[in-house]
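ok so heres the complex, three chains, lmk if somethin looks off
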Amino acid sequence: MRLSAVLLFCAASLTLAGGVSVRSLLFSSESASNFVTVQPQKPLDLSAFTLCLRLATELKTEQREIILFAYRTKYYDELNLWRELDGRIGLYLSGDGVFFQMPPLGSLQTHLCITWDSLTGATSVFMDGKKSLTKIYQKRHNVRSGGQIIIGQDPDEYLGGFDANQSFVGEISDINLWSNVLPDTVIKAMADNGNTVQTGDVIDWSVANLEVTGQVNVVNRDM
Amino acid sequence: MRLSAVLLFCAASLTLAGGVSVRSLLFSSESASNFVTVQPQKPLDLSAFTLCLRLATELKTEQREIILFAYRTKYYDELNLWRELDGRIGLYLSGDGVFFQMPPLGSLQTHLCITWDSLTGATSVFMDGKKSLTKIYQKRHNVRSGGQIIIGQDPDEYLGGFDANQSFVGEISDINLWSNVLPDTVIKAMADNGNTVQTGDVIDWSVANLEVTGQVNVVNRDM
Amino acid sequence: MRLSAVLLFCAASLTLAGGVSVRSLLFSSESASNFVTVQPQKPLDLSAFTLCLRLATELKTEQREIILFAYRTKYYDELNLWRELDGRIGLYLSGDGVFFQMPPLGSLQTHLCITWDSLTGATSVFMDGKKSLTKIYQKRHNVRSGGQIIIGQDPDEYLGGFDANQSFVGEISDINLWSNVLPDTVIKAMADNGNTVQTGDVIDWSVANLEVTGQVNVVNRDM
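and the predicted structre for the whole thing:
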């Protein structure tokens, strides 16, 4: 049994090393016009989620805030993820946010996940597979469907009202969204193995339709 | 088939752990006269490349710039890699460079790779297997053959015009150059396993002819 | 044969994770009287060596120098390892030392190794498995037998002349000495796996006779 476990382990490593290729978005300069809309696989009607992405940016802490992920319905920022001015990761589910002090993002790729569960309000951030402390946030809330997912800009209306000073500059890829909280070990495996292992049921980055507006390079990234 | 692949993989790991030995170049002091020329396995006529090396230096950021790799034809710096004064990694393909903010190089060995692809212009740096953001640089350019590869000095002419203030001081080894962009996982494996796994098709460090001028120690390094 | 070696290798990795226990020396306060002598398995007549140990200290860089390992014959500091005042790691083989800029030691355990080879003079430091640049030092020298190994104090004579301001304060363990240069991969494995994999042929910490003088706690440390 021990032997077969070893072989299974090796086989897994081998398969993963095989070379998955994912699309990666390059935002080369600050703008209020460059962005990408993402078409999810199903509506964002969520009582729990795991959002993961890989990103690198040369914008420094204290330089300015950066929008990492925006999902907005007509009147609400339903699920927005920020790198705050002071370097904290901020999550906003319709209203005031919850914040996590984290090691700084930088020009080397970081694997970032955030998990949230309506039932308990438990919210955690994972950086390169390492889990933050858990905070209680928006217990019994629900993320509502009918909105638009935007990468690169923070919409202050349904699809517009962009501010260059909040735009994303750098590279972002492998954005997956699940309608449940993934186990810590699964998130760690994603971070370590350099590929998604699983893709999201809500946003599946391997097939999601992307629509580019403005100057955004879409390159393939071998994982 | 999968099983045999697994065993091959394990065997490979084992073999590699067994002690590959590579030549390592020690530049003990600043000079305008110590350098090593490297004879490639084939001409550097490149529409894509991966350049990897291992290095350590006690020269600090903000102390001065350092040449890491120079390939010069008669009139052009065809493929030059620098640690800039401010600590950024700079790549120059005939003309202005592209720059990457990186964690500082230091006296502990760093595995450094840079990949470039003419078709898309996608350029990325890898430090100890971790990938930087991608930048678009010199799309549709071609690196030209007929030049000279020099380690330790920056030639301002075909083979001369050296400046001690730009010379490399420290240890550099395992310099391999491929004519394609290697997958991220292959680069990560090289960094993690402490060996090359593959050697370059353009520069194969295991066999490349090295010619030392001046005071450079060539030692063997067990990987 | 290759297959069985593979399985053996995998099995070994598995076994090693099992929980080796080693003796660990606690030096709780500064003194000129607390020290431990170590009885080696064979005389220190060395034309090459690898010295490894694990240590943690709350003494800060710029606070003072710290002796890490002392092997002294009647008139010479034959093989002394220091954390210098400025934080560098210094090795002294009878005379002036060689110095390596390193990340700071601290209150978290660091695995530290130093390798030296008489034939080439190649000297390198490893911190947590990461190799420094190599320096050329004391080529064709020989470490002489007939001395005394002391942990915790720097003897200015055969066994005495201690200075509290140079004493070791903190925890030190798993001190092994080999009469050859170990491959980088073996040193990395020791650092990563949290155990020695091999024990030294000159000092084998698992069996070496230790004699405590003064206030030094000897505790068991599970690896």
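quick notes: The radius of gyration of chain A is 17 Å. thats all i got rn
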